[in-house]
Amino acid sequence: MANSESEDFESADEGIVSKSQEGSSQLSTSAASSASLIGHADSETASTASSKKETLDQSHGDFVPLAPVNPESLGAKPKMPLTGRGKSYSKHRSNINNADTSDSVVPSSNDPINQAPSRKGRSGSNKLGVKISPSAVVKSELGPPDSNKCKGNTDSPWSNNLSNLNANEENQDVHDSFQPLLDKLASLDCVEASDEVIDTTTDKAVSNWGSWGSWGMNTILSGASSVSSHVTQSLSTMSSVIESGLGAVEPEEMAKLSVEEAKPRPPKPIDTAQGNPAFSDQASSSFNVMGNVLKFVESTGEMIVSSGLNTLETIGKKTMDVLQEGDPGLKRKRALFSREPDKPTLSQILKEARNRGELEDRERAQAKKATRAHFETLFDDYKGMIHLEALEMLSNTCQLKLEAKLVALSGTPLVEFQRKLIQIKEKCDIPDDDEDEEEDRGTIDILERDLTAAMRGLLVPVSHTKLIRVSEDTDTWLATMRCIQDEDSQNDNDEWVDEEEVSEETDPQNALREIHQQAIRALARFTAAVAEHFHKTAELLLLKEEHDSLLECQSVVMMTSALCSRVSSVAARFSELLSASANMLDSTQVDHNDVNLLITNVFLEASNSSSYIQDASLLLIPVLQLGAVQ
Amino acid sequence: MSVGPYNYSYIFKYIIIGDMGVGKSCLLHQFTEKKFMSDCPHTIGVEFGTRIIEVSGQKIKLQIWDTAGQERFRAVTRSYYRGAAGALMVYDITRRSTYNHLSSWLTDTRNLTNPSTVIFLIGNKCDLNAARDVTYEEAKQFADENGLMFVEASAKSGENVEEAFLETAKKIYQSIQDGRLDLNAAESGVQHKPSQPGGRNTLVNDQTASKDSCSC
């Protein structure tokens, strides 16, 4: 318990105090803490010691409003840092869970000052924290006097001057007999020390370095005197109690502080002063001056330290508040950070999260790539799917009407009716192997010729300009690519072009993928146009009054095969482009398996496209049949 | 299969119906392109428009079937009602005849769609208030009597166009939330996209299946 407290102290002090002021700040820290705590006690005179402890434990915020109170009640100059220091101190206390916080404060701050002159002044290497540990033992014994004292303070908020005056008078009489008691009290009243500093100090300070013991006693006595004046009424009660606690206190620590304080002075006086309480008598005449010096140093250090500590503390407190929010005792968070072998550490979790993120990014990128080259999606985007859907709905309507007619018929008309339906269906069968008949099937000219003939046969005012336009766009793109390729191959032959430069400019794999993507897009766009064309044809066929069903069937077949040929032709030309591009590239740059996969995929989507077109033409059959039987 | 490219979770099918020249295609164009098409050609059969909107944080793709208003296409367009989640029934406030035909359009809609289909009555061309031939009140009364949502809009100025499309979508979405509209029913007019390309493939498969049945 005590250890953790002292560690806190230690680290806080070390972290913030600059080296030159180390000693003074250590001392001032204890002084400040006692000051603020006393101040706190002042403001809460009515409440019991235990309730004070609760306040301290529960909310540090209590100290903030108290800040203005402290200086007033103590007659001190307003020093905000005091409050801050008190806060931190109280926090240590509350962490330790010791009996009574407000009680414990007094002796602990007492110890250092009190023992300084009487014991070794040299053990400067010891830490302040070590010194405080015994105070934890003491504090419980000191409960009552402390509260008494606090009351005394509040009852009579005297001014500095008055207390100083009193101190001078009383010291002479009292300090011999009450030496131990006063020693103790001195530390209680360190608050006062900071009050008197600034006005009196500097001039007097220089001359009084001579006696080490005198300055130490000086502090003690001046502090003690003012305290004693505060508490005159209950002096006897207090003395007994404090004395009882006094024995337990470790004096070295305070001595250390004193040494630190005395650093600027030559080391010799320290030696003489060491362990020599007799000095106090000699020095009694000049102790006020020394006290002022001490107090000045103290208050300056205190201001510096406490403002820094204040900030640190606020940060720390806030952090704790946030951490503890919804997690009292930090149980969950501790569990999280505790390194059990099977539980993943934070760094592992973060690493996994990052890996997962990267994987997702990759997948998304792949999905995006797949999307761009995804035939179905593009077909849908070009509204091919919805036209096909609408055509299907029309076709279904026609089918229903045919079935209705079929049901209404019987005998010879039924047979005749069925014969007609079958005839139409047979006429609409698309011949399989007529692709070899013409070499240049699939060119735009042939396509346009066939389409025009087909539409004339169907006698519907559906324009095929969209189909032609889409085809022209594709041909233009292919021609451009071929030109680029030719130029590239020429450049290669010339050997003028730096090959590295070329490979840096365009990633060959990307170029091939771009061609593949363009192929899929061209096929999807063309197929969508075909779906729309068939859909419009069906709608207008249904509006027709008179039908030449056989011619219509022939026209549909002609149209379908022309469109399918076009699709094959487009796929073939894209594949040629792909393999030509791949051949131009160095075999180290391109995986030919990838190229083959791309080419295969183009042909696959081409056959997909062809089956859409044939599906569309099949959907026309009921429309044609309905026309035939009207 | 990788996560699909769909950035929406539902598809709602709308159908726009009404007499020729009431401004159906212009309403659609205003909604999808935010532009007014001054000389709009007659629609042949049906045309399509799509736009993705957001309702209650859900992205919804509206697939809008803009039908031909010409009487000769009436038989053809009747094929397209099936499976519409929303029907926008449009008349021209400056032409009473288009208002008078509403009951016939409404009958078609009721007969050819399912009961959960949201029907929204739109009095178009409300920018031509001077030439008004149908009062707001009587149209409102007609809408109330038939349980239709109603608004007067202008495809030219864009007034209330968004509202009509969005309110319809909200009503449909509400029906889904309430469970009145069964997503699994074939003709709900709503497709739920669990963000997988499978949705589209399903459509193709359905088509193939039905094609088999009709081409025998």
UniProtKB/TrEMBL annotation, chain A:
Record organism: Frankliniella occidentalis (Western flower thrips)
Similarity annotation: Belongs to the FAM114 family.
Region called Disordered, residue ranges: 1-160
Compositional bias annotation for Acidic residues: 1-13
InterPro entries: DUF719 (IPR007998)
Name of this chain's protein: Protein FAM114A2
Keywords in alphabetical order: Phosphoprotein
PANTHER family: FI01459P (PTHR12842)
Sequence ranges of Low complexity compositional bias: 24-36
Compositional bias of kind Basic and acidic residues: 51-60
Domain of life: Eukaryota
Bias kind Polar residues: ranges: 95-117
Pfam families the record matches: DUF719 (PF05334)
Lineage summary: Eukaryota, Metazoa, Ecdysozoa, Arthropoda, Hexapoda
Automatic annotation (TrEMBL), chain B:
GO cellular component: cytosol; early endosome membrane; phagocytic vesicle; recycling endosome; trans-Golgi network
Enzyme class: hydrolase
Keyword Heme applies: no
SUPFAM superfamilies with a match to the protein in the record: P-loop containing nucleoside triphosphate hydrolases
Keywords: Acetylation, Cytoplasmic vesicle, Endosome, Golgi apparatus, GTP-binding, Hydrolase, Lipoprotein, Membrane, Methylation, Nucleotide-binding, Prenylation, Protein transport, Transport
Comp. bias intervals (Polar residues): 198-216
Molecular function (Gene Ontology), one example: G protein activity
GO aspect biological process, one term: endocytic recycling
Main subcellular location of this protein, as a coarse class: cytoplasm
Protein name as catalogued: Ras-related protein Rab-14
Organism this protein belongs to: Frankliniella occidentalis
